Amino acid sequence: MDAAQQEATARARELQRSWYGEPLGTLFRRLIDDLGLNQARLAGVLGLSAPMLSQLMSGQRAKIGNPAVVQRVQLLQDLARQVVDGSVSAAEATERMEEIKKSQGGSVLTNTTQTTNSSGAPTVKRVVREIQSLLRSVAAASEILEAADALAPTHPELAEFLRVYGAGRTSDAVAHYQSHQS
Q: What InterPro entries would the database entry show (predicted)?
């Protein structure tokens, strides 16, 4: 790899860190380890080709272009945390991965098994994650914060919304969402 390629890869990984919280190679390797997958199976669950997954992992590509794939990554991260903490068995994880693979992503009010509570309504956390995913698929956290700073003098509530959902923690966004419901 020549110096220009190394520089491009380093830049792509830095962009990934700002968009996804860490380089995708690190994130995907953790999912592979925690969920007992190989790269081909992870690519299949995410709805990516194996070469595309490899390019994202190596930093040859920086961004996941499809918001549905970004959502599947988030769902797999949630599932991996549950597997690691022991609240979901390996067999249950395999079933859930099939559901995730079939999920289309998309609207905030997606009504599928893993996104709803017993009444059939989306859970607060799922709605918040959908909003975060949508914002983060449109712009990097740094860009969202820049927009929030520009809006703050004239539209402080909108600026707060962008900061909380576009660059903040999910727990803070859930608290914000709950505090603004009638």
A: Lambda_DNA-bd_dom_sf
- Measure CA 57 to chain center: 15
Long-range contacts of 157-162 (CB under 8 A, 24+ apart): 162/135
Residue-wise pLDDT for 150-177, tens only, equals: 999 999 999 999 999 888 888 888 888 8
Q: Rounded to the nearest 10 degrees, what angle do helices 170-179 and 124-138 cross at?
A: 120
What is the C-alpha to C-alpha distance for residues 54 and 89, in angstroms, rounded to an integer?
28
pLDDT in tens, 113-141: 344 444 455 678 888 888 887 887 778 88
The model's pTM is: 0.57
| Euclidean distance between the first and the last CA atom of the chain, given in angstroms as a whole number | 57
Core vs surface per residue 36-62: b (16+ CB within 10 A) or e: ebeeeebbbbbbbeeebbbbbbebebb
In order of 90, 112, 131, 149, 160, the CA distances from 67 in angstroms are: 27, 17, 11, 25, 23
Cα distances (angstroms) measured from residue 41 to each of 2, 155, 156: 31, 45, 45
Separation between Cα atoms, residue 135 and residue 105, nearest integer Å:
14
